[in-house]
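Weekly modeling sync, notes
Attendees: S.R. (lead), two postdocs, one rotation student

Agenda item 3: backlog of single-chain predictions. S.R. asked that every request posted to the team notebook include the full sequence so nobody has to chase files. The rotation student volunteered to paste the first one in as an example of the format we agreed on. Action items at the bottom.

Example entry:
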Amino acid sequence: MLPKIINRRLFLGLLLLPDLAVADQLNQADTAWVLTSTALVLFMTIPGLSLFYAGLVRSKNVLSVLMQCFAITCLVSILWLAGVYSFIFSDGGELQKFIGGASKVFLPGIGVASLKGTIPETVFFMFQMTFAIITPALIVGAFAERMKFSAMLWFSGLWLILVYLPVCHWMWGGGWLADLGAMDFAGGIVIHINAGVAALVAALVLGKRKGFPNTAMPPHNMTMVVTGAGMLWVGWFGFNAGSALTADGRAGMAMLVTHIGAASGALTWMFIEWKRFNKPSVLGIVTGMVAGLGTITPASGFVGPFGALVIGITAGFVCFYATQYVKRTLKIDDSLDVFSVHGVGGVTGSLLTGVFAASSLGGLGLAEGVTIIDQVEVQALAIVVTAAWSALFSYLILKCLDKFIGLRVTSDEEVQGLDNVLHEETGYLDL
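Predicted structure, as returned to the notebook:
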């Protein structure tokens, strides 16, 4: 069934970027929307994800999480300019199916008049940079409260180059997954599966926090968590609707289905907890929202409202039980449930994209001659390849770093807290 899909790269390109029929002609509406979306996506990391994660850890580690997200933002920005962008989005010649080229390292010749489709290339560069920033920042949640700051920096930089770069090129830079017709509108595969699998590997390699699972480690500041979650919800509109790269009906539909996915995921998680534990929790409803957002992300430019509702409800169920299984049954200390929410959500949403993109189910339609089964097969292939690549190289990076500089703080330092040990600061004056 795969041969039916091989020769439809042009179709998907036009599906994703409908206004590029007038490529190399500046569209001010598109430019304004992508500029806005860029700010929204950066807002997701600084301060959205930062506050969300920081509230979830114990008070003695709040600054360490904020510092990690902030430092990753800076590090990825420089690496993006120094070559990561180029090797994803420039012409790789004979190796184009696997890697881009070096022609845009440090952006030579890119000025105010340079275009990428209907928007300035500088705007496209910045928009894609914000996606690259949030992906390794998501992984922070898996090793929170126990990784050395130096190891975190090395891991984030190497992971961006060895894992994010190739997978992003394969899907969005004209690589072989795009040639096969894999559908990932805004990052279910490139971002959420990629980061989720890396998070699981990191949690396994680093091992459990001292006291896990017998010692209770509740969030220290739920107000901070909800504030960060609200910022994530708002910022996600730039994440998904901005990925249309145009100010048109596709962007509007992507925004609508994103909101429906978030709302249905949040309510589903809330009702499951209410039924199971007799009370609905604030942590549950915001976690369900994030699960709904992560799961609708790959589908957001391809499905309609009905598909988004089903995807969101499915996300609430699947991700809730994934968190229970990983922590309670497997006893894996993925501190902030990155794999269960983002990884499992990304897999679920990527598979369901192949189903609900069909016009018969309210979606925007599959390529001519491609059935739902065909598309789901391609989606599954992209998922397996991405998960395997991320798992292998995440493991190798972590093991090498552990050998040369060490990954974890000492047991005594972990008890004392990373804020004081690593930064000689405290988040609260009374500590």
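Discussion: group reviewed the output briefly. The chain has a mean pLDDT of 94.
Action items: rotation student to repeat for the remaining queue; S.R. to check formatting next week.
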